[in-house]
Fold these 2 entries.
Entry 1:
Amino acid sequence: MVICSLIKMWFLVPFLRIYMYINLALCMLLFIEKVYMVVVVVVNKLFGQKPEKLYKWEPFEDDVELGTSHYPLVLVQVPMFNEREVYQLSIGAACGLSWPSDRIVIQVLDDSTDPLIKGMVEMECQSWASKGVNIHYQVRDNRKGYKAGALKEGLKHDYAKQCEYVVIFDADFQHEPDFLT
């Protein structure tokens, strides 16, 4: 019994005391952070700072004289891997962006391992291509780097190098048609 109390007194009590001070310091840091965040929010509310005031941006407008040439050429990459449930929606959303058709390139990067899904995605791309959409269906022979590797590989094509901007939409992300404007 004496040994047990000696162990508690010499080892357990100092450890718990140090642990308590560490927790107290962390609690104080959290409290200071909360107070700081309240001050930042109040200052922003009082002075009315909004991102629209900090960053001057205007949506693109059609210019009759220039036509669509003042629009930048945009590459839209859609990486996929066995996306059976959402491949039609994601390809349709990318092809349905409100942007001049001669200034946009859709690139579907399919790393699917299921041949049935690969066939369905390819047929969907061909369907959109027959409607006049500039869409490219790309397949790799390996999955090195997974989706990021497919994106990197997609940028190596000549038509991708001509694009000024690159937009990446994951297959399950549904964006608004006016995303680019």
Entry 2:
Amino acid sequence: MCLTAHFIDDDWQYHKRILNFRQVPNHKGETIGKVVESLLLSWGIDKIFTLTVDNATYNSGTVTYLDRITKEWGASILGGEFAHEMLCTHCEPYCDGRYDKFKACVEKVKIASKGCVCLDVPIRWNSTYMMLENAEKFQRAFERLRVNDAQYIHYFFDDGNGKKILGPPDFEDWDNVKVFVKFLKLFYEVTLRFFGSLYVTSNVFFHELCVMKIELTNLCESEDPLLSMMAKDMHEKFDKYWGDIEKLNLMMFVAIVLDPRYKLRFLNFWFTKWNPRAVAKNMTKKVKKTFVRMYEYYCDCDGYSNGQGQDGSSSNNVETRPVQDPHALVKSICKMHLAADSLESKLEVERYLVDCVEEDSPNFCILNWWKVNSSKYRLLLKVARDVLAIPLSTVAFESACSTRGRVLDPF
């Protein structure tokens, strides 16, 4: 098991740190939860904002255990309420063993690509797309191999266990490969953006869902029967996993609100477009309420709840000398606190939401924007720092052990 921490520092730089690797005796949720707990305590970490895990069944038990433990610690944001989890042609094996003959065919048909075919890896999410995308470039080489190499045909007689294989790919198969590549490219590109580990990803999740839903809807109406069939099947799975927005972690939507290019209006538009008006209205209210609750939590932590500003100075200007009427003092302190709370807390949230959205551009950096505007939103930036640090996927962490590139040093 690999445990990593993600955070944004005071200079608004995004960081990922591997805390530890640890063998687990079994894959029971509570067992893994106890291991995670011990690792956190060894690092002196007593707060978990969110926990990103994969969709293995045992992880539900892990999250339940950690949710209970962190509530006992009493230090998690909003009581840990949002700390829950937030995913084949047969010719390539032949070429893998007979590379020289295949390379000769590539040269004969004058294919200029410097790459080469790659094998499908069942446990890697992107390997099917990469395999087919590479194979398509070498279609003419495979066709030449079929003519020049008798062993190529013989390879497809059986699978080594006496079971007959369908044969080498023909023209119809290659047409189907083109369809598959077109279909899988959408998910490949979206997944790449989801699985980034060196930049902020929490504020792109909803946009990618929108792109996928629109593309799947369009592909369902494709005139190509194979493409349409795959799209309808995928659309059904998409709706099963992402369709009920009320079951998704609200922090993922708060991240969109904290993107100054979109804010709450962007969410409300797409909620309304894809859901009944009542559902959309309710979800928009839920997201805004969670956003405000997060802000109020940081206000309390920062001292505004007891009339203290960020510098520790009194914000109510009530004299501390003795007064004749203590009841009047109590009323005055309360009145001043409510006024300060309204000005310093709620107005900052409302001001952010009603301010004009920023113009989108290819070079826009959300962390740099918050850094520049830190004096304008003194407390709201603390919400942004924690929410924007949430990673969307665990896959990038697991790739630390990938043989495709060394990430860890020998130690």
